[in-house]
């Protein structure tokens, strides 16, 4: 088990790209419920945004009866809430799709978990007194950049349906694990949308716009859509709720271990409900055994383990399969889609016992 106080051996982020900076969390070496800020994965579409913190104001406008703007000090003075949340990139595990797809080739570490503190978005919307015909809430970030597919510059913007925007756990967050939100993760404020893939949790929030229509920005209607067909856009639908999933943390894939008892351990999570069971196979899915699972809470991780006596000297294919409280179970094969979102097939590693 990783000892974060060990001055010699410490995990680190794995760089996937330098521009924009995209780095994976060392998921196989993190055995606490809160990912340290220094090991939180990074997913960026553009370079980090420059802006003047001293003159920062957050406005709530458009389809509201009382347009309003908040300073950081005013946000900090409002009633707050803390929620432990899994942040998972929609492209997590993309490298595992077969046939392979284009995009950042994330392995299993484009996810992290921790405690976010902030003001419920609902509080700000209520103060602005939104119109009765409001449908969506658009959140715009300060980060922007050129998109070659559209030959134009776009800010990163996403919308939430009103029901999700008004959920009491949807936050405008300013703190992570009891410390100020790090700059590279959205300082001074970011949106946190528990249960949804992290593309919804806009960083460096610039303004909030309430609209009485459907938002059609490129990060809403081009990206972060499931495209089931390789050659056309038919039957496409939006990426929203996190799929039930699990990852084996130990042993590592292609490990060589001695005969005897070894504890298989890992994590499981879901965007809707809580994890109810995790099953483990050591024979490539021929048979399954129940793992011991902690009592995870909604939107966070569950940790699980199973001790097994590896007596035969041979190769073993170990698999993990999670089921949540809505009876969603990891499938044997993932739902293939052209942009490689939402991978959640049964996890597996292969080890050799000598």
Automatic annotation (TrEMBL):
Needed co-factor(s): Mo-molybdopterin
Swiss-Prot/TrEMBL GO biological process terms: sulfur compound metabolic process
A GO term, aspect molecular function: molybdopterin cofactor binding
InterPro entries registered for this protein in UniProt: Ig_E-set, MoCF_OxRdtse_dimer, Mopterin_OxRdtase_euk, OxRdtase_Mopterin-bd_dom, OxRdtase_Mopterin-bd_sf
Parts forming coiled coils: none
Oxidoreductase molybdopterin-binding domain boundaries: 45-216
Moybdenum cofactor oxidoreductase dimerisation domain: residues covered: 240-353
Keyword Transmembrane helix: no
Domain of life: Bacteria
Name the record gives this protein: Sulfite oxidase, putative
Provenance organism: Alkalihalophilus pseudofirmus (strain ATCC BAA-2126 / JCM 17055 / OF4)
């Amino acid at each position: 088990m990783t000892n974060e106080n060990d001055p010699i051996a410490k995990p680190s982020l794995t760089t996937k790209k330098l521009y924009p900076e995209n780095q994976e969390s060392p998921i196989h070496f993190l055995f606490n419920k809160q990912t340290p800020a220094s090991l939180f994965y990074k997913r960026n579409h553009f370079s980090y945004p420059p802006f003047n913190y001293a003159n920062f104001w957050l406005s709530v406008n458009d389809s509201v009866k009382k347009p309003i703007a908040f300073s950081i000090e005013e946000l900090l003075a409002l009633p707050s809430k803390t929620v432990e949340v899994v942040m998972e990139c929609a492209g997590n595990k993309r490298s595992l799709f077969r046939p392979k797809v284009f995009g950042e080739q994330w392995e299993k570490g484009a996810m992290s978990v921790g405690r976010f503190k902030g003001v419920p978005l609902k509080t700000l919307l209520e103060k602005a007194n939104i119109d009765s015909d409001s449908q969506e809430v658009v959140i715009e970030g300060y980060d922007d950049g050129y998109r070659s597919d559209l030959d134009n510059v776009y800010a990163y913007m996403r919308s939430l349906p009103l029901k999700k925007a008004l959920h009491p756990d949807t936050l405008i967050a300013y703190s992570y694990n009891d410390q100020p939100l790090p700059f590279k993760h959205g300082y001074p404020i970011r949106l946190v949308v528990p249960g949804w893939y992290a593309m919804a949790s806009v960083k460096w929030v610039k303004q909030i716009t309430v609209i009485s229509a459907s938002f059609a920005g490129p990060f809403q209607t081009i990206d972060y859509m499931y495209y089931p067909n390789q050659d056309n856009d038919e039957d496409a639908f939006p990426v929203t709720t996190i799929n039930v999933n699990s990852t084996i943390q130990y042993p590592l894939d292609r490990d060589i271990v001695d005969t005897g008892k070894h504890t298989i351990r890992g994590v499981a999570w879901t965007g809707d409900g809580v994890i109810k069971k995790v099953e483990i196979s050591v024979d490539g899915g021929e048979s399954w055994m129940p793992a011991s699972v902690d009592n995870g809470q909604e939107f966070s991780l569950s940790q699980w383990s199973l001790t097994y006596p590896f007596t035969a000297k041979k190769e073993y294919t170990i698999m993990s399969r999670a089921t949540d409280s809505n009876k969603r179970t990891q499938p044997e094969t993932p739902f293939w889609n052209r942009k490689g979102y939402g991978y959640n097939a049964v996890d597996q590693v292969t080890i050799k016992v000598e």
